[in-house]
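Next comes a single protein record:
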Amino acid sequence: MRGFGMHSVGDVGWIEKDRPQCGPLDAIVRPTLIAPCSSDTHVSHGGSGPHSELILGHEAVGLVEEVGPLVQTVKPGDLVAVPCVTPDWLVGGVQNHKTFSHDVGPFGSFKLVGSKDGVMAEFFHVNQADANLAVIPAGVSPEAALMTVDMASTGFYGAEMAEVALGDTVVVIGIGPVGLMALTGAILRGAARVIAVGTRPQAAAVAREYGASQIISYKDGPIDAQVLELTGGVDKVILAGGGPEAFVQALNMLKSGGTLANVNFFDAAASLTFPALSWGLGMADKDIRGGFCPGGKIRIERLMALIEYGRFDPTKIISHHFHGFDALPEAFDLMDRKAPDLIKPIVYLG
């Protein structure tokens, strides 16, 4: 079969591989809709190590082609949303961690691209299909379902980690697709005022559609100073973009008793340091939390239920549409270059 991925660090292109084999608990899926992600481009540049001949991609909707003899809840022909995090539910790490993201160690459940070939192929493998494939209900479009498997799941987890409560004032730093979903999740949890930090006009417009109270830009000065001038301090900050300096600024703008929830990948070479005063000399009851996208089908089923019953529409974050398997390199390159009008691209495969 053919797939798109990395031959080596910095060298991407088409790859020929054997079709994956289906284990007794597993499934083989043929993707019909794919979304390239900045995590894929990060991997291609060596962000998770020196991989070679690795098919990329971890966001897909597709048709089940084959299931193992022990699979009970999905069957060939089912249209499924595939969580980007597909845990091995039989290992201790899952049983010891509430998000199921770290089955055999940090990010261990992030198997697509993390430890095996991803979804940008004619076929891909999903482990433990009964627990890791979510059949798409009739009331949810494939495009909306696709946005749940990583973008909504990760963004909403930022709001969940922050424990956004009724009436909170919340800042979301970074309004790419994950940040926009974090903003939406905060509002669904009852935030009264949500300030979004970002510069791209298209993303800012979508943030307003989702309910952002204000948009501020780092181009207008330090964002912590701007937020403190507007609010005097906020209850929660969700960090969905930016570098180490944004981490410090997030701490600075928090009230005592506030929570910083991070869903942003920092570079492995970065160091996160902050002045003791930013953390109230260690005594301000400011919580710092960071987590990875929760895994498994129930998570995705719950997000699709929110869509089915009209609580939010994730398709607003889709900015570019491509058609055909041969369009994968162009869509991937767009994500890699982060074009000014980009939020999230999708590719229709059939």
Notes: Residues 155-290 form a domain with the Rossmann fold fold (CATH 3.40.50.720).
